Amino acid sequence: MATSATTTNHATAGRIQTAGPRRKARLHGRWHTPYVFLLPALVLLAVFFIWPAVTAVQLAFFDYHVVSPPTWVGLDNFKRLLGDPRFFTALKNSGLFMVGMVPLLVGLPLLLALLVNLPLRAIKVFRLLYYLPVVTSMVVVAIAWNYVFHQRGVLNWALTSVGLFDKPVQFLLDTGWALPALVLVEVWKSAGYYMMIYLAGLQSIPTSLYEAARVDGASSWQRLSHITIPLLRPYLAVVVVLATMDSVQVFTSVFVMTQGGPQDHTMTLGYYIYDKAFREFDVGYANAIGLVLWAILIVFSLVSYRITRGKVTVP
């Protein structure tokens, strides 16, 4: 019996040892399989991102007006920027969008996330309602807000009814109101997206921390400031970076609602690039502006990330 068992064990061990090299050989023969599945995505990335990006960088150093062949001009397009007052107007307006949008897109979504994270009945309905503008086309949103801001729209009716305004205001034609109006539209459209980022962070915080804080007699404000906010810091960094990028790239709302007016008061860098490329057909100069915008995005994103990042500690 012992001899039979020993023989069986040796045979089993032999099969296992034989199966190991065979399995490795089969796996080695299929080493290319993951790359085959990645190939379509890599092709799409190359066609729709890498190739256009490389072409845009090249055209920034050419004088190219579509109907004529491109001519090498070196850094002349970038020198033109220094003497272009409309470029600096667009740069200033993009900065104003950033100043107006980023604080609102950092603070308001956090408040909404705290509210929709409460254990209340039908709270998922409110999450859906707050997120609905995010999945709505920006063109549709801009057209709808055009009616809201109209001289005979609901906003003017409400403001004149309560006595805040003596007469209706043409918000989108007023140099003082046009840009704040677009900031409001952009924040309304994007707040739900950043709310979901915060909500993911809130739901990842262990409830045991809050229970321990309650036992120690911590108030709601103390739990928020000493537990919630510190543990949300990585999510805050993401929100700040994304909000900064969104604010500098504002285009669709400007295109649909104001066309850069009145008197260039809402013309952003994104809209100025469009204006140069598709209205004046100055493609080389437009790509030079695009490179500057790209550099601005990288700088502000890195600065925002370095300011908001940090080691998470709970006092």
UniProtKB/TrEMBL annotation:
Stretches the record annotates as Disordered: 1-21
One example of a Gene Ontology biological process annotation: transmembrane transport
Pfam families recorded: BPD_transp_1
UniProt keywords, alphabetically: Cell membrane, Membrane, Transmembrane, Transmembrane helix, Transport
UniProt biased composition (Low complexity): 1-13
Protein name per the record: Sugar ABC transporter permease
Family assignment from sequence similarity: Belongs to the binding-protein-dependent transport system permease family.
